[in-house]
Amino acid sequence: MAASFLMRKSSAVRFRNLFNRSIAVLPNQHQIHHHPIPPPSSSSLSRFFSSSSPSMASSDSPFPVTVHNINPKVVKCEYAVRGEIVTLAQQLQEDLKAKPGTHPFDEIIYCNIGNPQSLGQLPITFFREVLALCDIPSVLEKPETPALFSSDAIERAWSIIDTIPGQATGAYSHSQGIKGLRDTIAKGIEERDDFPANPNDIFLTDGASPAVHMMMQLLLRSEKDGILCPIPQYPLYSASIALHGGSLVPYYLNEATGWGLEIKELKKQLDAAKKDGISVRALVVINPGNPTGQVLSEENQRDIVKFCKTEGLVLLADEVYQENVYVPEKKFHSFKKVARSLGFGDKDITLASFQSVSKGYYGECGKRGGYMEITGFSPEVREQIYKMASVNLCSNISGQILASLVMSPPKVGDESYELYRAERDGILSSLARRAKTLEEAFNKLEGVTCNKAEGAMYLFPQIKLPQKAIDAAKAAKTAPDNFYCRNLLHATGVVVVPGSGFGQVPGTWHFRCTILPQEDKIPAIVNRITEFHKKFMDQYRK
Amino acid sequence: MAASFLMRKSSAVRFRNLFNRSIAVLPNQHQIHHHPIPPPSSSSLSRFFSSSSPSMASSDSPFPVTVHNINPKVVKCEYAVRGEIVTLAQQLQEDLKAKPGTHPFDEIIYCNIGNPQSLGQLPITFFREVLALCDIPSVLEKPETPALFSSDAIERAWSIIDTIPGQATGAYSHSQGIKGLRDTIAKGIEERDDFPANPNDIFLTDGASPAVHMMMQLLLRSEKDGILCPIPQYPLYSASIALHGGSLVPYYLNEATGWGLEIKELKKQLDAAKKDGISVRALVVINPGNPTGQVLSEENQRDIVKFCKTEGLVLLADEVYQENVYVPEKKFHSFKKVARSLGFGDKDITLASFQSVSKGYYGECGKRGGYMEITGFSPEVREQIYKMASVNLCSNISGQILASLVMSPPKVGDESYELYRAERDGILSSLARRAKTLEEAFNKLEGVTCNKAEGAMYLFPQIKLPQKAIDAAKAAKTAPDNFYCRNLLHATGVVVVPGSGFGQVPGTWHFRCTILPQEDKIPAIVNRITEFHKKFMDQYRK
Fold this sequence. Notes:
Two copies of one chain form a homodimer.
Chain A: H1 2-10, H2 13-20, H3 42-46, H4 72-76, H5 84-98, E1 109-110, H6 125-135, H7 145-148, H8 151-163, H9 179-193, E2 202-205, H10 208-219, E3 225-231, H11 236-243, E4 247-252, H12 263-275, E5 279-286, H13 298-311, E6 314-318, H14 335-341, E7 351-356, E8 370-375, H15 379-391, H16 397-406, H17 417-444, E9 448-449, E10 458-459, E11 462-463, H18 467-475, H19 480-492, E12 494-495, E13 497-498, E14 509-514, H20 522-540
Parallel strand pairs in A: 1-12, 3-4, 3-5, 5-6, 6-7
Antiparallel strand pairs in A: 2-8, 7-8, 9-11, 10-14, 11-14, 13-14
């Protein structure tokens, strides 16, 4: 660490930029991205994409559109979860297919992204039955149907179809989503929180990402507007802030206290940003954490809510992992519930909570369903949000239906309940075991420390890299964590994402690894990673 | 017309703004929106939303977020298709439900939006069978299934599931969409055009709207970047340009020649924009036209392609109505086919073509499926587009599947073919009859002229309003066409969109009306509109 710290201090700006990638922040001083953005060099592009073609001068190009004359915010935006390492993995996969046996592994294991079904997780039967029946209502009345579908799925499909105006399952819906489905979701939120929820506060969206973009687009006027984001963070936030031309104001999660979120750190970064002339509009909190896996305590959440109230910040609560909590001592509490239990109403705190069908035990990423619940916005601003939703007409109806289903799954006594419960509990308890196994394995590796995944779908181990590895990365013109991940991929076929894609304290190196490979594959993965790591450390040891 | 022209000339700026709404353009001089945008007045907000609450001063507000401190681009953006008239209609619908008999109609007929299934159009059986089966693959092997689903739907579902890596129908796909589905779409394009199509040029999207936003986000750096858009236009374009901070450079379609698109008008507006320091990046062409319904001749398209090549403009081809052509003398030709048949390759013309599952004979708006085919972009820029797609992970898989189905429907000999053909031809021939009936009805109204709908789903009649109606609109602080549409709604329950939402030559007034109500309802709609129009004209006649 001391060595890498010296390294950083003495290195040229360009090299440091390569190190610190998308979130170029210093530990005690945030760096605001409001300098004019220079055209990207080909090496900066190649950090995320595999293309090795040189940067093209506008004048030589036969194309009217070049990287030099497109929106620089697009060029600036980075998204490591599908970045360079993944592109490399896709190439290796093609290789394996074309020439089996040419690599020391026979499959690519995608641990870069929270995409459970891509790694073999099966969908929840009840949810899929209802979706299929809503797609083909004519089947609902056929005599053969009860042999193929459960009775409560048939009943639920009817009740959903009846809630759609004109039973038109193929029509654009209300811009916020079908009212009857929002009613169901509001009821689900009420059951979860024990506080009222209003269906008119809910906007159904194609997954959580478009909802986050909508909030960023609403709040960010220029680079003088900032959003407080955790470091490390899920790169959707940095990407969205970059695309919408605002400034990311980082606050560091404390790795030493299990990725603790400390109010004094929030306050320090807020004040520093203000001093720089940044108007901080909102605070992003990801709970359970991504990539960090921590689950906030209710007391901590109360302090966060009070902080937002005092400072006049919108609280953007990423709660997409609300069903993914693996430790008995922690429980998920929604920020809205915490705010309401403090007695804070609409006029005290402005809050957007994001939920998705892609996570939880369902993991229906491909359905692109989700919602945001917005409270504490003035009627005039809500009209503006409604208008933004209207420009895209509506989110997809299957995703809308699924969002209502995850908030109102089968209940005791329903025909599907036992199967549903078995599927849900099977997935969640297996995820808990996988998290533990992987965490323990990482902690056994030389120079690696890994906090527990209390929730979500990831581990974010820190690796203390030998100086020779850092030098080798420098020679390869890449960041040390990227260098490690690339080597890991080449040796094992396991795809993980370098910590620099999420942000990390400079001079520290991490990677994010999902806990999603099927359980029977975990031992082999652990072996492969362990074996690779040993060789890597041996190779670069002084 | 002379009277209204004088009106406009003598009216105050504020009033003129109300007149000219989202596309504030003058006939011979385009107005670029690069002035600092003032906070919206409550009357400007109420143009789109029903709220009558006064504009709130920041200092009095308990909310940290107000219309005065959000992104002014959001405030500026307007989208009439779901604007004030629709909000009013929704209120009337609630009214009707709560107190039946209180209005002179017993249902609201939504002719404001191209949403066929909301007005009773049924989905194509084969498409829905395949979608349902892909949602619940376990059903595919059950003995009861062939009684419920056609054999080719079962076969197609298998082949789609097999094309998805790991058969994971619930996983995020490749950022551009599932490769196998892109292969199918590329093949469909080749069959349509008789020119090669590359699956790697295809980006599957949640409908056409996100694809348009992506292109605007890519191309627009500031208000000094402009996009040539037809006037009248589909307001997605003006909304997206406003949201992304560019300038709309209008070109007028010639109503007198059936909404003709004239190259000399393009050239004139391009030159005028350049003189104003605007760098024009792209030309939007909607073919078949929305809201105008014209179908371009191949010769006209060739000139447009040559114009884009000469001027270095990206051609943004909105081709979502490619299946909706109703007159035997016209045929849809894709711009890519036209470009290729001129011998223009990737290095000659940069082209994005948008397609959607929401239109055509399928009208599956709620599925939010679509794609863009991009050609003639440099590898570096394609990487940037890929990155933008990656930030949102992928479009919804059901929409992706449906996009592949509409580009490869059942073929002669398939079990579903006869039913599919009957459904498709039934819908298309009925749409053609409805277009004709409504057009003839509009042309019979006093002071109304209406071009033929050669394609798409709309008529865009012009109404010459009496001066007294214009004065009454002024007194009611609204635009005359809005005033007419509002009165039409109150009298008949028919929802149409004022021409000012699409842009029109100042001093002329139009509305857009879809041709989508079911055929058996058309006579009653015609009667109601005719009766209303007579009364309206009588009331405001000098």
